């Protein structure tokens, strides 16, 4: 038996999880006892965890392997029964959610800072998912934070490292550590949802090709297995397919800015029919057709409109849920289907109750996230397979499918403007100034726009009745347009201001407008009302998606 050590420690006061777990710079996590404090605080809050099963793995970013060895030894000292670890310490976020559910685990620890850059100077993160497979709700993350502010000791086993590169079973005292293939359960789930033979037939025509850019992050092996091996998509379908600790120096966020190399390929004359990418931990997706970009908000609406043609959703949707800043395109589909559309705060954790209660089947966020009740996380490759199934059935181009959708439901022009790495105090003040203006804005007219609602979004969860307030400044206009301002909860440097802009256009003759042009008066108004240029001294956003 290896000995259990009790280590004295002092609290760090900055371990409050944000939109999606605790995210800090790698070097911040490497401070003395920093990771250990957080993990012990987590175990201290999980009543009844002794003897139970946990899933553990990460997106392979720098510090992943070291962190896993530390967590395994703390888990053993806390008498966790069994830990299922991904081969090489790797696990995509959706695969963790899948394995938690499939193997009926108590919960799972995901080591990832998602779409944030990696490497020694990059970011690291820890997220806890509960037994339903989804991110822990705020009641749990707040309890962990409260505990982390008081912690004065943690327990750790003195033992050799577990060889993560070999599949099989090991022991750390009474704790069984099983190194498993993280792809198997998730791939079987995908086969149960989508018509693989129909998709395979599409690739077999020889006229349909695609690229999937794994951005040197976690999804490379998953995409190779599903797209290249099981669906016959061809050997060079997956680009940047090897997970690297620094993501090859890239920023693994699949959008028009950071996914530029794929975008460039998809805008060439010889571009394939479909282009897709996923992020650091595999839960986000970007979908492109030949010379055509599908906005994530439209993506959710289009998946919902075609769900009845997909085997896993043939019996219909219970409801749709979207985060508040996501465009209202999905609401129009929900209305046509006569099902409810829920509006939640930003962050996947808010969808969990709706999915568990059977109130929603599909969920999505404007930040390149979509998923369904198959898991309790968003799932990048699931979205790609959904599109492949639609394309295999419709035998039309991505662009044709989207344009047909707009013609039927109208187009919600939509864009997000991010101002990254701003001074925190000034940015908080900008939001506070807007908050103060809210009562005076209702009823005000700006050019053709009259404000009908101005508030700070608050969510009443219809399942557990909890209330979450302060979730973003909303300005809604008479014609359905919206401007939303909120601060990011996932950054690790300064503050990021996000401005979300949306305008509905029913006239098909106007659907060809360029998005920033279609939104130009709202963009000006958003700047004017928040005095963004004056207060941030930025002439333009860092990232426009
Ligand atoms: C951002 C996005 C959210 C998303 C969150 C976590 O949060 O805006 O929609 O839920 O990232 O995504 P992931 O799990 O892929 O990191 P924020 O607070 O920075 O706006």
Automatic annotation (TrEMBL):
<keyword id="KW-0479">Metal-binding</keyword>
<comment type="similarity">
    <text>Belongs to the phosphohexose mutase family.</text>
</comment>
<dbReference type="GO" id="GO:0004614">
    <property type="term" value="F:phosphoglucomutase activity"/>
</dbReference>
<protein>
    <recommendedName>
        <fullName>phosphoglucomutase (alpha-D-glucose-1,6-bisphosphate-dependent)</fullName>
        <ecNumber>5.4.2.2</ecNumber>
    </recommendedName>
</protein>
<dbReference type="InterPro" id="IPR005845">
    <property type="entry name" value="A-D-PHexomutase_a/b/a-II"/>
</dbReference>
<dbReference type="InterPro" id="IPR016066">
    <property type="entry name" value="A-D-PHexomutase_CS"/>
</dbReference>
<keyword id="KW-0413">Isomerase</keyword>
<dbReference type="GO" id="GO:0005975">
    <property type="term" value="P:carbohydrate metabolic process"/>
</dbReference>
<keyword id="KW-0460">Magnesium</keyword>
<dbReference type="Pfam" id="PF02878">
    <property type="entry name" value="PGM_PMM_I"/>
</dbReference>
<dbReference type="Pfam" id="PF24947">
    <property type="entry name" value="PGM1_C_vert_fung"/>
</dbReference>
<keyword id="KW-0597">Phosphoprotein</keyword>
<dbReference type="InterPro" id="IPR005841">
    <property type="entry name" value="Alpha-D-phosphohexomutase_SF"/>
</dbReference>
<dbReference type="InterPro" id="IPR005846">
    <property type="entry name" value="A-D-PHexomutase_a/b/a-III"/>
</dbReference>
<feature type="domain" description="Alpha-D-phosphohexomutase alpha/beta/alpha">
    <location>
        <begin position="15"/>
        <end position="153"/>
    </location>
</feature>
<dbReference type="Pfam" id="PF02880">
    <property type="entry name" value="PGM_PMM_III"/>
</dbReference>
<dbReference type="InterPro" id="IPR045244">
    <property type="entry name" value="PGM"/>
</dbReference>
<dbReference type="InterPro" id="IPR005844">
    <property type="entry name" value="A-D-PHexomutase_a/b/a-I"/>
</dbReference>
<dbReference type="InterPro" id="IPR036900">
    <property type="entry name" value="A-D-PHexomutase_C_sf"/>
</dbReference>
<dbReference type="GO" id="GO:0000287">
    <property type="term" value="F:magnesium ion binding"/>
</dbReference>
<dbReference type="GO" id="GO:0005829">
    <property type="term" value="C:cytosol"/>
</dbReference>
<dbReference type="Pfam" id="PF02879">
    <property type="entry name" value="PGM_PMM_II"/>
</dbReference>
<feature type="domain" description="Alpha-D-phosphohexomutase alpha/beta/alpha">
    <location>
        <begin position="298"/>
        <end position="409"/>
    </location>
</feature>
<feature type="domain" description="Alpha-D-phosphohexomutase alpha/beta/alpha">
    <location>
        <begin position="205"/>
        <end position="288"/>
    </location>
</feature>
<dbReference type="InterPro" id="IPR016055">
    <property type="entry name" value="A-D-PHexomutase_a/b/a-I/II/III"/>
</dbReference>
């Amino acid at each position: 038996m290896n000995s259990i050590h009790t280590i004295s420690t002092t609290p760090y006061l900055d371990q409050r999880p944000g939109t999606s777990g605790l995210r800090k710079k790698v070097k911040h996590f490497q401070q003395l006892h920093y990771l250990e404090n957080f993990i012990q605080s987590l175990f201290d809050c999980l009543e009844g965890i002794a003897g139970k099963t946990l899933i553990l793995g990460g997106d392979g970013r720098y510090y992943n392997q070291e962190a896993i060895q530390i967590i395994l030894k703390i888990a053993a000292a806390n008498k966790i029964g069994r830990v299922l670890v991904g081969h090489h310490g790797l696990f995509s976020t959706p695969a963790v959610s899948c394995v938690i559910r499939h193997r009926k685990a108590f919960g799972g620890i995901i080591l990832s800072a998602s779409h944030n850059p990696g490497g020694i100077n990059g970011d690291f993160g820890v997220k806890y998912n509960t037994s339903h497979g989804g991110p822990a709700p705020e009641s749990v993350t707040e309890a962990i934070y409260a505990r982390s502010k008081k912690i004065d000791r943690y327990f750790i086993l003195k033992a050799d490292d577990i060889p993560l590169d070999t599949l099989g079973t090991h022991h750390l005292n009474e704790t069984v550590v099983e190194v498993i293939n993280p792809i198997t359960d998730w791939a079987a789930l995908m086969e149960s949802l989508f018509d693989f033979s129909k998709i395979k037939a599409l690739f077999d025509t020889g006229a349909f090709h695609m690229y999937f850019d794994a951005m040197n992050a976690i999804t490379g092996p998953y995409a190779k297995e599903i797209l290249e091996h099981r669906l016959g998509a061809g050997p060079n379908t997956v680009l940047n397919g090897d997970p690297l600790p620094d993501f090859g120096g890239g920023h693994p966020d699949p959008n028009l800015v950071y996914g530029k190399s794929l975008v460039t390929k998809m805008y060439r004359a010889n571009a394939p029919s479909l282009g897709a990418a996923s992020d650091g931990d595999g839960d986000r997706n970007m979908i492109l057709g030949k010379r055509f970009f599908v906005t994530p908000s439209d993506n959710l609406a289009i998946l919902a409109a075609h769900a009845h043609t997909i085997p896993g959703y043939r019996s219909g949707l219970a409801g749709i849920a979207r985060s508040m800043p996501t465009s209202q395109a999905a609401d129009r589909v929900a209305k046509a289907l006569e099902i409810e559309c829920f509006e939640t705060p930003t962050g996947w954790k808010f969808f969990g109750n709706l999915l568990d209660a059977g109130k929603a089947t599909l969920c999505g966020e404007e930040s390149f996230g979509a998923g369904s009740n198959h898991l309790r996380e968003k799932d990048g490759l699931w979205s790609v397979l959904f599109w492949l199934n639609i394309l295999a059935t419709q035998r039309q181009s991505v662009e044709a499918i989207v344009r047909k959708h707009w013609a039927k439901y109208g187009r919600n022009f939509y864009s997000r403007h991010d101002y990254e790495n701003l001074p925190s105090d000034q940015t908080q003040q900008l939001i506070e100034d807007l908050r103060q203006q809210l009562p005076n804005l209702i009823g005000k007219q700006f050019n053709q726009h009259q404000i009908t609602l101005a508030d700070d979004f608050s969510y009443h969860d219809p399942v557990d009745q909890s209330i979450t307030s302060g979730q973003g400044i909303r300005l809604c206009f008479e014609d359905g347009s919206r401007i939303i301002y909120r601060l990011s909860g996932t950054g690790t440097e300064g503050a990021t201001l996000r401005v979300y802009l949306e305008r509905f256009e029913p006239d098909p003759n106007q659907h060809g407008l360029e998005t920033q042009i279609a939104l130009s008066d709202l963009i000006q108004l958003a700047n004017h009302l928040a005095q963004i240029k004056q207060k941030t001294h930025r002439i333009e956003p860092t990232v426009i998606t």
